[in-house]
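Quick log. Single chain, no ligands specified.
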Amino acid sequence: MYHIKNDKRCQKSAERIGEAFRTILADKPLAEMTVTDIQKVSGVGRSTFYRLFDNIDDVLLYLAEEEFNGLVTLYKDLSWSGFTEHFIGNIMSESRGLVNIASSGKTHLISKALRINLTQAAETDNHAFDNVSKYMIAMFVGGCISLVTAWDENGREESIDELARLMQQAFNYGKIEKLLRRPAKAQADE
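-> predicted structure:
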């Protein structure tokens, strides 16, 4: 897990580590990335890295959570279909990194980051977010990640709209929205 305190120096170091991670990820497989690589590109000392992060996976989780904070804000304002289009577009724009992450077997960290953010948003809004809700989110996130990975492998021919339509065909969005946006009190009544 990462341990970033709420002070400017720690946050600035974490940002530099995150930027270095992204830079390295563009040219090197995640499985081959080392803390030394990150240290050299970021200019952050080894002890600072380990004070903020336990390992490289924690950097990926931190970056994914940061990325999804803004996305989850949109989730509150968009229909599930609109959220899907935005989410897929976001993943498509970062598809090179995603394919690298997928080939390293680390997509579970991206999935975890989004599930954490959506759960926190639902709890903040006082929505019921039980295990069924968590499974729905896990299937949706996994579907989006797999879809974009396949899109990359198939030559990137389809648009965001086409991929979003495929997701709509695979999932019953009306049911998902109803399930994820029900008030917390309703959970006890069911």
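Residues 87 and 93 are 10 Å apart (CA to CA).
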